[in-house]
Write a structure and sequence with these properties.
The protein is of the alpha/beta class. Helices cover 64% and strands 8% of the residues.
Length: 596
């Protein structure tokens, strides 16, 4: 009983550590996995020794790996591959093959065997999809060709790595290269993929429709069904002599929204995300940090630096070279290669299994973990530098160009903003009050009726094609939730929220996590300005900017002078109107238009 209690305490400590590490990483703009790995290294047996690798942690980690691979499979949408299939395919092959070869020969050079070299090559060749998704949003690149190519190449390279991984595991299980045994292994692998694909295409959709007919079917019922399917696929992989994660991954590829009733598919997706990404996967990544040997900096520093260098250069060089046949320019290829440098879940899982099977030792595993952390940290800087380079040359290609301003809340203030911007862009409103919707439409604007916290309602407004979203109701909480939905589900690149004075500080902390800024760069007295504008009891003013400053500092300057002003928009030197918000930098010769 004593040991079991200790396990529970240790599990609690691991989960708290994972949460703190993940939150810290997200705070500085990196994926949670990096924070979870680092906290595991710091608090685990390798350094402070505060956390233990108990049997409880081991079991949960193994389950976490499997469910994480199911989720990765679910997230892969083959429709995305069509958006940039040819350049994405070439970039993924080059971005995988070149670092694979460099990683393989670097391992051999430092005394490793061929099997260890292939494991290192795979880990170096992998590209993290989740890492890029967040970075592309932060850099406002989601609607560029670069983004489509990066997402497609990440999907292809991860899938390619898992296929090679299956082959290496099968060969490793044989122990020797025997022709007849190798043929049997290949036939087993072909049979596994054939059976799982046939089941996924023909049986699972029929099973989903059949289960949907049950009156007692609920989201819990369907969630259990997903787990059963994943376990069955994992067992098929084991029977074929491959690792269970390959079965879990294949299951995820065919567990799509159309298998379940639409009204619960989103709920299922969220539940699976919470269990896999929110609970079990962090346990695995923290425990992966336990296996890292810090002595590698003393014993194998040359190999560590070489692998990191090969990983970064290999991705950039490989993607750029293989990108040339697309005719889209070598500079875009370099940019794609820079963006592909992030590693993540698949790389750590592959390395962990290699360590567990004795194919790689603890030093090589440690090198791969540090490589994943350090190369991923370079992505925001490399991608920003290379995309800025393309912008300066006019070579950054925008696909499905977004345009339009979507405003939540048709009120005196938002209508005043809309009147200033209606000659520059398309304006669309959404409001929950039917009378206000009618009145707004009578003023010549397009206004939809509905609850903006419902994804279906936002979809009907054309949110997926909008460039900017403003949440301008009098309710700060509704504004924040709506902005998170607009940014997360519809990838609207520019989201701004109206915050009241009383909720400004708390609101700012929340907004930083969703890449959203506060409208007017401050909290305002909402009712005061609504009444002032509706009664037309205000005057207009213009401030000519003479020195570079931030929107927030401009507001502080007005407050210091005890001026009650509300900045509506900024007019730049070319006459274009820009929203005044927290993240904006003001430049000389620009004008701030305000009311007081």
């Amino acid at each position: 009983m004593e040991a079991f209690d200790l396990n529970i305490i240790n599990l609690l400590a691991v989960l708290v550590a994972a949460w703190l590490g993940g939150a810290a990483a997200r705070r500085v703009g990196y994926p949670s996995i990096l924070g979870e790995l680092v906290i595991g290294i710091l608090l685990g047996p390798g350094l402070l020794g505060w956390l233990e690798f108990t049997e409880t942690i081991k079991v949960l980690s193994e389950v976490g790996i499997m469910l994480l691979m199911v989720y990765i499979g679910i997230e892969i949408d083959f429709k995305d591959l069509k958006k940039a299939s040819w350049p994405g395919l070439l970039a993924s092959i080059g971005g995988f093959a070149v670092p694979f070869v460099l990683g393989y020969y670097a391992t051999i050079w430092f005394g490793g065997n061929a099997m260890a070299g292939m494991f290192v090559g795979m880990a170096v060749g992998v590209t993290s999809l989740a890492t890029k998704s967040r970075i592309l949003v932060d850099l406002k690149l989601l609607n560029t060709r670069i983004a489509y190519v990066l997402m497609a190449s990440a999907l292809i390279s991860d899938t390619l790595a898992l296929l090679i991984f299956a082959g290496i595991l099968s060969v490793a299980a044989m122990g020797v290269f025997d022709g007849s045994e190798l043929l049997i292994v290949a036939l087993k692998a072909i049979a596994f993929f054939s059976v799982t694909i046939l089941i996924g295409i023909h049986l699972l959709p029929r099973l989903g429709k059949y289960l949907s007919k049950f009156k007692t079917a609920s989201s819990t019922f369907f969630f259990t069904s997903i787990i059963i399917v994943a376990l069955a696929y994992a067992e098929l992989a084991e029977l074929a002599g491959m690792h269970s994660i390959l079965g879990a991954f294949m299951a995820g590829l065919f567990i799509k929204d159309n298998l379940f009733p639409k009204n619960i598919s989103k709920e299922l997706h969220k539940a699976f995300y919470d269990v896999s990404i929110g609970f079990l996967a962090p346990v695995f990544f923290v425990s992966a940090g336990f296996m890292v040997n810090l002595h590698v900096f003393q014993t194998n520093l040359p190999m560590l630096l070489t692998i990191i260098f090969m990983a970064i250069i290999g991705k950039i060089l490989g993607a750029a070279l293989f990108y040339l046949p697309t005719g889209l320019g070598w500079r875009e290829g370099v940019t794609v290669g820079a963006g592909m440098n992030g590693r993540g879940a698949v790389e750590i899982i592959i390395a962990g299994i290699g360590l567990e099977m004795g194919i790689i030792d603890q030093d090589i595993f440690s090198i791969l973990v540090f490589m994943a952390i350090l190369t991923t940290m370079t992505v925001p800087f490399l991608l920003k530098w290379t995309t800025d380079w393309l912008k300066r040359r006019g070579e950054l290609v925008v696909m499905n160009k977004r345009e339009g301003l979507l405003i939540l809340g048709a009120n005196p203030l938002s209508l005043l903003i809309a009147k200033h911007f209606q000659d520059q862009t398309k304006i669309t409103f959404i409001d929950a009050n039917q009378d206000i919707v009618r009145q707004t439409n009578e003023q010549g604007f397009v206004c939809h009726h509905g609850n903006a916290l419902q994804e279906e309602v936002l979809s009907e407004t054309g949110a997926a094609t909008m460039q900017t979203f403003i949440a301008a109701t009098s309710n700060t909480e509704v504004n924040i939730l709506a902005a998170q939905l607009a940014s997360g589900s519809f990838q609207i690149p520019n989201t701004h929220v109206l915050l009241s004075k009383s909720n400004y500080i708390a609101g700012i902390d929340i907004l930083e996590l969703s890449n959203t800024t506060s409208l007017f760069a401050s909290g305002i007295d909402v009712n005061y300005w609504f009444n002032k504008i509706s009664s037309e009891d205000f005057s207009k003013g213009v401030d000519n900017i003479t020195a570079a400053t931030s929107a927030r500092d401009w507001i502080k300057k007005q407050m210091a002078a005890k001026l009650e002003v509300l900045p509506l928009y900024i007019e730049n030197t070319s006459g274009q109107k820009l929203l005044f918000h927290f993240g904006h930098q003001l430049h000389p010769s620009e004008k701030v238009h305000y009311i007081k």
